[in-house]
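Protein in question kept in full:
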Amino acid sequence: MTQYSNISSHSIDAIIRPLTAQDDAAIAAVIREVSAEYGLTPDKGFSVADKTLDFLSEVYQAQGSQYWVIEYQGKVVGGAGVAALAGNIGVCELQKMYFSRAIRGQGMAKKLTQQCIEFAKKQQYQSMYLETTAVLVEALALYEKLGFNHCQHLGETGHDACEIAMIMDL
């Protein structure tokens, strides 16, 4: 499913498009950069520690999964994905949503999250789950504004350092 979206938000013109294998190194670099900026180190069970980080395009080939990147000025500067939450029928997880400083505060996170939600609905998921940490203040505020509610942790995501779990009915 190839879907490109040109998005203009404030002074930023960017493209949201599906992740390709050629983007793997760039999005892994964004995730590592943002994680380091917020002190989310690999030794603590955050996304940056995932063994699949350098080949996300392979991970999101699974049925009911998709990862999108944001391209700005010819460079991958962010992304987010959706995949089934193992052991939870009808529940997907919003995953690996990270944005370089260059595009933060421009409404891109909201646009990309809404695209992820629409994809999840089309895949007939009933709920979208996510895990985050209190250090990501901006992300937490966005999730709450979009209608995610705090909940108990579901499943084994491998991100045991993410102390906040949230869910939204779709």
